[in-house]
Structures are given as C-alpha cells and as structure tokens.
Model the fold of this input.
Amino acid sequence: MGQDDLANKLENIKVKIIRPRIEKRLIFKLAGNLIVNGCDFFKQMTDSQAHNATRNI
Done:
C-alpha cells in the first residue's frame, strides 16, 4: 500500500467522522438560537397581550 492510498483513506475517514460532527454542532447551535429567540418572542408577545388585556379592564 502506497502513501497516497493511506492519505486517501485518512481523508475519507476525516470526511466521514469530522464533518458530520461539525454539522451536528452547527445544527444544535442553530436549534438552540431558534429556541431562545422563540422564547423571547413569546415572552414579549405575552407581555404586550397582558398589558393590553389589563388596560382594557
């Protein structure tokens, strides 16, 4: 087995293992940001709704 074969095998292993890990991390980060932003959005929405509801009384 030549060095080129070994290098190719290592490259394939890197692509198979490392790239999915990075993608997973990015996906989790994005999901986390979405959840946090969603919670903030709902909090703001419910605050303004509560304010409007109490103002009408």
Q: What stands out?
A: DSSP finds one helix and no strands in the chain. Helices lie at 3-56.
